[in-house]
Automatic annotation (TrEMBL):
<keyword id="KW-0732">Signal</keyword>
<feature type="domain" description="DUF2147">
    <location>
        <begin position="24"/>
        <end position="139"/>
    </location>
</feature>
<protein>
    <submittedName>
        <fullName>DUF2147 domain-containing protein</fullName>
    </submittedName>
</protein>
<feature type="signal peptide">
    <location>
        <begin position="1"/>
        <end position="19"/>
    </location>
</feature>
<dbReference type="InterPro" id="IPR019223">
    <property type="entry name" value="DUF2147"/>
</dbReference>
<dbReference type="Pfam" id="PF09917">
    <property type="entry name" value="DUF2147"/>
</dbReference>
């Protein structure tokens, strides 16, 4: 009986910890339609947060490339592309990195913050965080 209780407790603790993490798969929704247009996986590498596009829902965009990107991402497939790089934990948020918008090919400073267990706030900006745009990603179920 003790093993069953311990196993249940361990499982509940694991689920609780994962629900409070920025890491995992997130849905990006179109701002106008509210429909999911891509799935982004946020992962940790060397103590920093990164994210890549792991799914594009529009079947006609599966082979889309970032034609407006510069440098190493120029004309690379958007599917599989890293769009968040080098964010470090700073209190309740992760900051100090960059985010790439494949629609316009531009990189912005950014920070991300878990505002609810299943809602991630992403703020991309130029210069100061007051000059930017906020988006929300929703945990993929």
């Amino acid at each position: 009986m003790k093993k069953v209780v311990f196993t249940f407790f361990l499982f509940a603790l694991t689920v609780s910890i994962n629900a409070q993490s920025i890491f995992g798969k997130w849905e990006n929704r179109d701002e106008e339609t509210g429909k999911v247009d891509s799935v982004i996986e946020v992962y940790e590498k060397d103590g920093k947060a990164y994210a890549k596009i792991v799914e594009i829902t529009d079947q006609n965009r599966q082979d889309a490339v970032c034609d407006k990107c510069k440098g190493k991402n120029k004309d690379k497939k958007i599917l599989g592309m890293n769009i968040l790089t080098g964010l470090e934990k700073d209190g309740d948020e992760w900051s100090g990195g960059k985010i790439l918008d494949p629609k316009n090919g531009k990189k912005y400073k950014c920070y991300i913050e878990l505002v609810e267990a299943d809602k991630l706030k992403i703020r991309g900006y130029i210069g100061f965080s007051l000059l930017g745009r906020t988006a929300y990603w929703f945990r993929k179920k």
